[in-house]
Each structure stands twice: as structure tokens, then as C-alpha cells.
Design goal:
globular, 10 helices, alpha+beta, six-stranded antiparallel sheet, about 20% helix, homodimer, five-stranded mixed beta barrel
């Protein structure tokens, strides 16, 4: 199976655990078969490979998510990084070109596009695998998987099939309806459009060449910024006459709000939490190093991270957006390709950061124009390079790095550093990278 | 007026804002006449001195609270530090001896003892002042102020007066009753025993000499550890035949739980808090540097500090004790005589602390056996002494202080330091003090 996973949506709907940099698919609230915490992207990877060990997985994503994916999945997947955000048609096209021109996938092979974020059972990916067989039959240019609705939702687009069978031609697509209209669709055996599309790679590339002028993956990448922002649904699906849909009747959940996430997360509490006996139907997630005590909480979600603390009635959790938007956008916890970065103190002209790296991880060689840094190694051993001079550093060592000075560190063991940044304009933008 | 304020109770009933070191009387949730935040101890000081500018105030307290009092009130009050905790009779006796032998108060002067923690109006201290006149009349050895009950409480002791007048002889004292019994007391015009006692200093010292063998304040201080733990009520008040009580009918509130504190605190929210329109009857106090968003909270108190986060239904807030006791006792925020100390990160063999000092403040000259420290000056200027060597330090300077090394710093301007402690057994006990 060739799967393109769309990993988008740097949303804040699961604030304070999701933010502009850390999307909800990277929050570890699920558990794998060994009982270890895993994120949605890790869960999806595990589910796909349990159905098809040989699956080739390409994740289409933004630059800001690439580090987190690399940190969570290592080199087990290919990452197709969009130079900038341009909606799903350009993203899928870029990945398709990548598969053809860089990964050598044949035009006759089937490719399935799936979003990374619904919460599903393994059965879902067994159905996804069946799409490959349907594409091979070549009875339609596009094959979709539609989800059998569990209620007349206003939140999803609908696919109206011609027949009631497991696989059917598509009669038409409908935008998000009101509840009354949705009820009528349900009587017509309509399906939710869950964003799962399967096609022969060659079909999509031909289609794309008729719409966008480009030569190959690298050319498309260079032109990416100039592409029109348009969804795959509008650009391709709704215009395609030869199209069929397969019913999926298993479990499928959109975990876009805390209310929904609370239903599917592995444990009612995570982290340092004490809950008294009078709490009811309440989930508490604590990523901070402080204890949380909850007493008498009913139907609530409480979530705490270095970005902030949310205390909400479940019903209200879907209305969080305007309040989160009032808050500063600076992410206080960031998963980098070389480890994690947690802001532990902010003052007018200084910021203190905790850095953790795993053995083998290495930062880029870089400098800052407007800040000095003081690094104290609090555990582990590494090799630091400061203005070309290499030195081994161990627990207790202190590095003073003046503005303009080029520096990096490679973790030889797991490595923890406390970094004090000093300057009048401390910003994540203040960074130059260099080759070593 | 000579007032002895009893500042005890290092309780956790207002956790996470109060802890073993920071008592509830130091939490700044009230506002003074200029609108600045003030603590209970600051409020009481302001109220007493607005009634009597010349009042001599002595605070009887433990060693652990002395720093916070000094930090909040400076040299405006005398602090009579108990060498160890021995209940209210020894504490009052030590302060009385201090007034006589150290402060030179005459035996014929009146002394009034008040607890520091009830929430009252200025009117309360106007009544306290009247006690002085009653003591001067010399119609009784002890004069109490009793609070007119607002309901038949089970939480307080009762004073049964002989008559109904403003001042009356005391018939008897009653222990905390059940509600039914309390109702009968109310019919007898009984008063709550609020722990306010007035007497001629000479009376108390004579009484004390008949019960405890001591020469003067210093001798009593030296013997303090051997004194019996006993309350002033048991040791003196309930045995005294010549005793009268004055009625106080004004406002008086015990702020021993979050439910009660929520009623009297100056603002419904304090700190970085966003509350949506669907929150009702909810108070939120945030001492952290993170935002808190609250949505749909009803009848709750939410309080966050570096010690932890409390999310509680108001009714439940009185039942917090067993849950707080499960939590580590290490205070993460401490008010020292030389400034404040906030733990911002804890790892296995390191701890990172933010230190703030005001201009002029100075630490003791000290060393640690089992930890190294790295100090980064993040703002301000000070004079550091490390193993006898004096140096001026400024923003950006780094001091590396090895275990065993003697050190101190004096703030020449307001001074902020990030201190990284490194060692396998980091503890507040690991400290030796030296003369300079």
C-alpha cells in the first residue's frame, strides 16, 4: 500500500496541549499494545503497519511539523514537506510527484490519501487496504471511502451514493448541511466525506499536468508558493465524473474538541493529578511538574502544559477559540528534530529554557545576533562546538555563548541543559544556521 | 496601644497559596486604600495604625514566618520569634516578657493580644482600642472581646456572659458545641471566643511567674523548648475568676477555607486569567506565569502557584487536607528576608531556581556541602563575595560556586538571578552560615 497521510491543522482546539507548532496529532494521550503512551501519528503508523507490514507511508506536512514527526517516528516514514501552506490539492499533488519522481513509484500503482487525525480502529485501515483492490479493477478514476453517519451532523460534507451497496457510484457531493437537511441525506443512505481518496498514481499526475504547469517534483516544489490555495475536493473530486465510494461502517471519531478527546483518551488522568471521590466524568491531563488537586469537578476537562491551563465544562470546550486567540502565541514547549525545548522562566530581558536531547541527537550549527546564552549541563555528556572549537562537556560544565558566536552540541548520552538567554530582543527568529 | 499579634498556623488550608512555610496571612488577595494588593498581615497592620498611629505592634511568630513578616512589613513592627512552637500561652508569655524586659513597657500599661487572621473592618480595631479603657478601670484582671455570632456555629468556643450589656462579667466558657447546643447558647446571648485578650502587663507577668520559673525574657527564651504546650485559654483565661467580656457586633470572618476566602478577596480573578461569560460564582487566582482559561465553571475556586494547582467546587474546599498531605512538602516558592526564591525546574540531580532581591537586600554568607551552583545574573547589579573575594556582578555575569565554597551577594539595584543547583543530594538543610 502507498499511503499519503495528510498531517495539517496546527490548530489550537486542544489548547494548551496543541498550539501553532504542536498539532493535536502529536499529543500522547493514547496507549500502544505495550501500554506505552503514543500520539495520534504514532497510533496511525502502528495501525497501518499492523494491517500491511510493507506499507509505504509518506506524510505530507508543513516545515513546522516535520521535526515533531521525525522525533516521534524517526526514519520509518517519508516526510514530504510543503514549502508553505497551500491547502490539500497542492499538498497531495506534491506528495504524488514525490512518490513518482523521488521514490520511484510506478504510475500504475495505487495511492491512498488519508487524513492523520480521526480516531479509528484497525478495521478502518483494513478497509483502506480494500481500496487498492477496487482501484486495480479500474472501474472508476477515483475511489472514496465514506463513513456511515452515526447522527445527522452539521459538521461534515456528505457523499450521496447512487445505490445502497458496499461500493457504489457517487451521485453527488453535498456541503455541510443543517440538521434537517442532514436527516434527509441519512434517509438516502448518504455517507460522511472523511477525506479518504484512492487513485492510480498516473491518473492524478495526468490530471495535475492538465491543471498546473510543472515538470517534476523539484520543479513543483520550486513553484509551490505560486500555486492556488484550493482543496482536493473542489479541484478534483467534485469535478470528476468517474467516481465511486466504498462504505465504512466501523468506528470513526473526530477528536477536534476536548469533549471528543475526553471520550477516546486512554486514561481519565495523565500526569501528577489527585482527584477526589466526588469528581464525576472529568478528565485531567497535567504536563507540568506541579501537582493538580481536583475536588467536586463534574463533566469537566482540565489540561495543563507550559503553554497554559484550561479548566472547562465539557460542553463549552468547543467554544474555546476566541479565548485562546487572546493569548500570546509563543509556544512554551516545542518538539524539535534534536530534542525538546521548554520555556521555564520569562523575564523582561531574559528567558530560561530547559533542553533535553537523546543520545545521538545534534543541533544545527547556529548563532544569534541579539542574545547571549549561558548553558549549564545538568546531566549527561556531549560534544560542543563553539566558534569552531570542539570540547567535550559533562554535568556541571558551563558554556558562555556571546551574541554572534557560532555554536552547536551533539548529545553523546541523554543530555539535559538549562539555557539562560540574555538580551533585549529575544526571539525564535533570531537565528542563523551554518554548515560545519 | 500595645498589641501582640499572634501569627501562627503554617497550615495548608489555602493550598497551593499557603504551605508549611507561607502561611495564609502572607497571601496578597486584599487591596489597600490605594488599590495595591496586600496580605492579611499588611491589612491588619494598616487597620491598627489607622485607628492608633502610635500603636506598638509586636508579632509573636515562628522562625519560619519571621522572614516573610520582615519582607512585608520591614521594621515597622517588632517580631518576637519563638525558638520552637509551644502553643499560645508560652507565645504570649514570651512576647509579654519581651515587651517588659526588652521594649521597656511599664507593668501598668495595657496589652491586647489579637490573632492576625480574621477578616474584619476597621471598626474591630476601634473596639480593640476600647479594651484599653476597660483595663485602666481595673474592674477585672482579664478583659476579652467576644464576637456576636451570626449563626450557631460548631467551629468556635463560646463565652457565656452574666448580663446582656456591652460589657459584662463572664459566667462561663464552653467548648465547641454541636449545632443544637450552639442554638441554646445564642438564646443566652453568648459570644464567640475570638481569641482577643486584654490585661495589665504586670498582671500577666505575676501570673506567669507563679506558673513558670524564669527570670526575664532572655532566660525564658533559653528555656522555651522545655515549656509545656498549652493554650492561653486553658492556662489562664478559663481559670481566672476576675474576668469580663466586651461585645463586638461588627463584621468578623474566619478565612480558613477557600470557600470563605472567596467571599472576601478583593477581586474575582487575580493574575493571568481569562474567564468566559458562562462562569458563575467562581474565583480564580493565578500566581504562575502561564495563562489560565476557564469556561463554564460554576461555584468553583481555582488557584495556581508554583506549589501546584487546585480546581475545586467551593463546598468541597474545606475537605482538602488529606489530598494536600499526599503531596510532597517541598515549598516551591519561599519569601526570604533577603527576597524571594522560586523553584522553576526540578530534575534528578539538579534544581533551577529564580531568585529576586530588592536593592539593599543581602543574603547570609553561606556554603553548601553537597551541591555546586551556577548563578547567572539576568538583571541588575550586586556585590558578590565568593571565598572572601569581593566582585561587582552585572547582567550577563556568571558565577560558578563549587560545593564548600562560601558565598553571598548584596543587591545594589533590584537583582534577578537564575541559580542552577547541581548535586546528588540537593536539600534546603544543606547550608552552613558564616560571619563575614
Amino acid at each position: 500500500m502507498n499511503i499519503i497521510l495528510l498531517s495539517g491543522g496546527s490548530g489550537k482546539r486542544l489548547w494548551p496541549l496543541s498550539n501553532d507548532i504542536r498539532s493535536k496529532q502529536f499529543i500522547k494521550l493514547f496507549r500502544d499494545e505495550q501500554g506505552n503512551y503514543e500520539s495520534m501519528v504514532q497510533r496511525v503508523y502502528r495501525q497501518i503497519t499492523s494491517v500491511d507490514k510493507e506499507a509505504t507511508i509518506t506524510i505530507a506536512t508543513s516545515k513546522s511539523q516535520a521535526s515533531a514527526i521525525k522525533n516521534q517516528l524517526g526514519d520509518k516514514v517519508s516526510i514530504c514537506v510543503e514549502p508553505c501552506r497551500r491547502d490539500t490539492f497542492p499538498a497531495i499533488l506534491l506528495s504524488a510527484a514525490y512518490l513518482h519522481d523521488e521514490a520511484g513509484v510506478d504510475e500504475d500503482e495505487c495511492v491512498v490519501v488519508c487524513p492523520v487525525d480521526p480516531y479509528v480502529d484497525d478495521e478502518y485501515y483494513e478497509s483502506v487496504e480494500k481500496l487498492e483492490g477496487l482501484v486495480a479493477k479500474n472501474t472508476a478514476n477515483l475511489t472514496l471511502m465514506g463513513v456511515e453517519p452515526s447522527y445527522p451532523s452539521e459538521k461534515y460534507g456528505y457523499i450521496i451514493p447512487k445505490g445502497n451497496g458496499d461500493v457504489s457510484e457517487v451521485l453527488e457531493f453535498k456541503e455541510k448541511p443543517d440538521t434537517e437537511t442532514a436527516k434527509k441525506y441519512l434517509e438516502q443512505k448518504a455517507l460522511w466525506n472523511a477525506g479518504v481518496f484512492a487513485f492510480r498514481l498516473g491518473f492524478l499526475l495526468e490530471k495535475a499536468h492538465s491543471m498546473v504547469e510543472f515538470e517534476d517534483y523539484r520543479d513543483l516544489y520550486a513553484k509551490y508558493e505560486n500555486l492556488q490555495k484550493i482543496s482536493f475536493d473542489y479541484a478534483v473530486v467534485e469535478k470528476e465524473p468517474s467516481i465511486q465510494v466504498m462504505r465504512y461502517s466501523g468506528a470513526w471519531k473526530d477528536v477536534g474538541t476536548w469533549n471528543m478527546m475526553a471520550e477516546v483518551m486512554a486514561d481519565d488522568i495523565k500526569g501528577n493529578v489527585i482527584k477526589d471521590d466526588t469528581c464525576e466524568n472529568t478528565q485531567i491531563i497535567n504536563e507540568l511538574n506541579l501537582p493538580i488537586i481536583c475536588m467536586g469537578c463534574k463533566d469537566m476537562v482540565i489540561a495543563a502544559s507550559t503553554d497554559g491551563i484550561l479548566v472547562t465544562d465539557k460542553e463549552r470546550s468547543g467554544y474555546m477559540k476566541p479565548y485562546v486567540e487572546k493569548i500570546s502565541n509563543d509556544a512554551m514547549y516545542v518538539e524539535k528534530s534534536w530534542g525538546t525545548y521548554t520555556v521555564i522562566d520569562v523575564q523582561t530581558n531574559s528567558m530560561t529554557v530547559k533542553i533535553t536531547m537523546s543520545a545521538g541527537q545534534e543541533m544545527s550549527y547556529h548563532s544569534h545576533d541579539y542574545r547571549d546564552e549561558v548553558w549549564t549541563i545538568v546531566s549527561g555528556q556531549g560534544k560542543a562546538i563553539v566558534d569552531g572549537m570542539e570540547q567535550v562537556v559533562r554535568t556541571g560544565d558551563v558554556l558562555t555563548i556571546a551574541a554572534g558566536c557560532r555554536h552547536t552540541i551533539k548529545a553523546e548520552t541523554n543530555l539535559d541543559i538549562i539555557e539562560v538567554q540574555l538580551g533585549e530582543s529575544i526571539s525564535v527568529e533570531d537565528k542563523h544556521k551554518f554548515d560545519m
